[in-house]
């Protein structure tokens, strides 16, 4: 019985999620948007979900913002996150090859297409910003399969279902534990690797400034490009003017080891700082679409903290949040 009970509870949770998704898929977009706004008020009001970590992140990045501005940004973030979940469910039925132009517009896509259509491997880098799930979905929809690294979900039924959803449009997932040989072979064969770059890597990670605050980054992202010669493309998919199922997908910049006049690809630290700066460029016009509730920033070791303090922080920290 002790072995059966976890399986039953996992399947019950999976069944509940599938029922909720079936209901969500029937909702008109304007009704779904209104529901998300109401739930965002609850999340930032009486429920106060992840309030402490969200306020800490925002107060560090926007030290001159008023409490009212921070509250509005927090609510806008929650609205974005909830709407993002609905958009992922809607995409299965409402976003396809015949109507993609009604939902997605591309910006600076020529560089992206040039690399994706070549026989070279490619590393696509984005962050917990905008609707990155829709971004990967659209790339697969266009006929460009990609591989991503992720931790398996604890619920094996949900994990299998999410994997099937992504693979249906050419997004293939590999478990981050022991994935290095698979990724190396994938890049040697000219494959495309898609990565979320803004995940904490612990004290032994590569520490750089992200949005003006020290952040630990996984060294593997830079090493994938440096070891394989694959160009690293920093991109985004963000919602336009807060309208559900309306996105702009763009390429911010490309770091190519074969055309590296600025020496960006010469070291792990330089390449890591480069893509963090480019992610900040993508986030700045729509700060409410970033995941301020996840623990991106931690306290660095004293030696590293002193080094980062000597580096210029750029225009990120203390910027206006009126756009939110």
Oligomer: single chain
Helix content: 40-55%
Rg is: 20 Å
Order of helices and strands: HHHHHEHEHEHEHEEEHEEHH
Briefly summarize what is shown.
By secondary structure, this protein is α/β, with parallel strands linked by helices.
List keywords for this structure.
324 residues; alpha/beta
Protein model, in words:
With 324 residues, this protein is of the alpha/beta class. The chain has 12 helices and 9 strands. The protein has helices spanning 4-24, 29-44, 51-61, 67-94, 100-103, 109-116, 132-141, 156-167, 180-188, 219-228, 268-283, 302-309, and strands at 104-107, 122-126, 146-150, 171-175, 192-196, 206-210, 213-217, 232-239, 247-255. The strands form 2 sheets. It has a 7-stranded mixed beta sheet, with helices on both faces. A two-stranded antiparallel ribbon has the order 6-7. It is globular, with a radius of gyration of 20 Å.
Any chance you could write out the topology, listing elements then pairs?
Elements: H1 4-24, H2 29-44, H3 51-61, H4 67-94, H5 100-103, E1 104-107, H6 109-116, E2 122-126, H7 132-141, E3 146-150, H8 156-167, E4 171-175, H9 180-188, E5 192-196, E6 206-210, E7 213-217, H10 219-228, E8 232-239, E9 247-255, H11 268-283, H12 302-309
Parallel strand pairs: 1-9, 2-5, 2-8, 3-4, 3-5
Antiparallel strand pairs: 6-7, 8-9
Helix pairs in contact: 2-4, 10-11
